[in-house]
Amino acid sequence: EELKKIIQQNILDLMEERNLSARRLSADMNLSESYAQKLLNGTFVPKLDKLLMIADYFNVPIWRLFLSPELATGKLQEIETYLLTFDEATLDATLNLVSRIQPNSEK
Predict the structure, then answer these.
(1) Which region, left, alpha or beta, applies to residue 68 given φ > 0 means left and ψ of -120 to 50 means alpha?
(2) Of 8, 47, 72, 102, which is least packed with CB atoms within 10 Å of its CB?
(3) How would you write the pLDDT of the chain (107 residues) with one tens digit per residue?
(4) Contacts by 63-66 with C-beta closer than 8 Å and gap 24+?
(5) How far apart are CA 65 and CA 72, in angstroms?
(6) CB atoms within 10 A of CB 31
(7) C-alpha dist (Å) from residue 29 to 7, 32, 45, 48, 88
(8) Rounded to 5 degrees, what angle do the CA atoms 89, 1, 67 make?
(9) 3-state DSSP call for residue 96?
């Protein structure tokens, strides 16, 4: 649930930085308006191929979409270098694991 919100907010932030509407995003990326709206509402976590497509569209590394600013502060280069070593299956599994992490959980 938290990952959905993080991805949603990061995409909205990128759209705001570039002054893009949902309609323009869906047209540019060849997404249905329904899919774009669900994405921007944080209804689901996109599959890896869509995350890669979104990151490419905005010309940002993929971690920019699914890491909260608090997690990334001061570690952006280290995180990017590490994620670039992942193959697609490992990255997909990592995204799945990250989506299961509960914020503020104590172990």
Answers:
(1) beta
(2) 102
(3) 688 888 899 999 999 999 999 999 999 999 998 999 998 998 888 888 899 999 999 998 888 887 776 665 556 667 667 777 778 888 788 777 766 654 444 43
(4) 64/10, 64/14, 65/7, 65/10, 65/11, 66/3, 66/6, 66/7, 66/10, 66/95, 66/98
(5) 11
(6) 19
(7) 17, 9, 17, 15, 21
(8) 60
(9) helix
